[in-house]
Amino acid sequence: MSVIMLKIGGSVLTDKQKSSTARPDQIDRIAAEIGDSIDSKKLVLIHGAGSFGHHQALEYGLKAGLSQANIKGVWPTHHAVNILNSMIIDALYRHGVYAVPVHPLSSCVLKNGRIEHICLEVVEELLAAGIVPVLHGDVAADLRKGIDIISGDQIITALAKGLKADQVGVGTNVDGVHAKDFNTIEDISPANICKVKETLIGSRGVDVTGGMYGKIMELMDLASYGIPSLVFNAEKPGNVSEFLQGTCKGTLIHGD
Amino acid sequence: MSVIMLKIGGSVLTDKQKSSTARPDQIDRIAAEIGDSIDSKKLVLIHGAGSFGHHQALEYGLKAGLSQANIKGVWPTHHAVNILNSMIIDALYRHGVYAVPVHPLSSCVLKNGRIEHICLEVVEELLAAGIVPVLHGDVAADLRKGIDIISGDQIITALAKGLKADQVGVGTNVDGVHAKDFNTIEDISPANICKVKETLIGSRGVDVTGGMYGKIMELMDLASYGIPSLVFNAEKPGNVSEFLQGTCKGTLIHGD
């Protein structure tokens, strides 16, 4: 089963500066592009939480792990991203893509913030049934910390390994990974990763899961398993469709 | 870890005659009783879908398995029960019970309508963190049928086995299991199960997951693993609290 994995960053789908504020035009456009180009492809979609969940996670201090003081923040944090997830699935339906949520809070266990267990069986069977599983950044149970935040970048890496994905894309709000001179870096591999680290510029807005460098480290890990990935600009109309057709440009992250 | 499992039927929490109609007074009362009596007990809550999901599942014919015609019914069916689930978790929070959803669609795989895989790890770790996992009747991926309906009764049985539950309660809208003369049957075991089958009366309203007899068969299966369960009236104020304290009356379902 040939599997495509696509993550769309929270900065594309939401206004990261304003708590729980979606960008419905972007959500609808991306859903339409997926509808236009999915054909019979097996797609797993992952979305960032953006301003749905990040603000709540920061307010309650969930990254520090569970305490008597912040236990009341778990449900509001999850519920916020669940609302964004429902908007995205509704948009996919409008464009003929039959998708359902697979919530990490229901299906993942972390250990010090890293995925210890992820319920691959559900994702595999939904794909086999012709349904698009949609995962997202979330709060999840943690063996050591009680609770922690799981990023969409970590999910795409773990799932791509588990499902032996054929094509992995990370849609952001920039034209791939930028050096300080604002030129897009065409490819990143173990050969140039140290130089890339020095020259990276930060991503905009609130991000409790790490910015571009954290993203690249997740994708370098994936590349070491023989699975390359493309970081591209999902804000640019047509790029999501081109990614699904294998023609999109961006930064290719690959192994040696 | 001593674990209590409590299922509250959809007929208690919703008006089964009207699509997507909750009974907010009942939801709030039950949440309050849980808040009063949970102390430091490890509780897993399961709720039926009631009129949130049953009507949609019937409308789209999801029990027949996935087809090109009904694939569009999967998300609306799940989304409906997700709304009920959010109401219940909100009510629990109001009464100081920190609960989160564990959606079967995200965490279970079926095979011909029976649970083939359930993500126990998540439920275990949430309990360890002092959080109440809340599961529910749902639509879920099925290895043979593409998709099928999973009942709360099947979930409580599978989880009780997996977690080696110490106490299992099934709260319905009747005083336990009734014979035709309307007297409650005090206990059901392999010794009287055939007689019970003959004398059972039906439960009210729409139920795509089977009525009282299906429920008893699930609980007889659980009893054969050495885990007895109590079917009791969760509509009667005080009974949920009494169940958590181990003093509630109803029908005890047990092994030889």
Strand content of chain A: 15-25%
Structure class of chain A: alpha/beta
pLDDT average of chain A, as an integer? 92
Largest sheet descriptor of chain A: 8 strands, mixed
Largest interface: A-B, 38 and 38 residues
Q: Assign the CATH topology of chain A.
A: Carbamate kinase
Strand order across the largest sheet of chain A: 3-6-2-1-9-11-12-10
Tertiary shape of chain A? globular
Q: What is the second-level CATH architecture of chain A?
A: 3-Layer(aba) Sandwich
Which segments of chain A are poorly predicted (pLDDT under 50) over 5 or more consecutive residues?
201-209
CATH superfamily of chain A: Acetylglutamate kinase-like
Specify the oligomeric state: homodimer
| Residue share in helix of chain A | 25-40%
The figure for the number of domains of chain A is 1
The gyration radius over C-alpha positions of chain A equals 17 Å
**What is the tally of helical segments of chain A?**
10
Order of helices and strands of chain A: EHHEHHEHEEHEEEHEEHHEHE
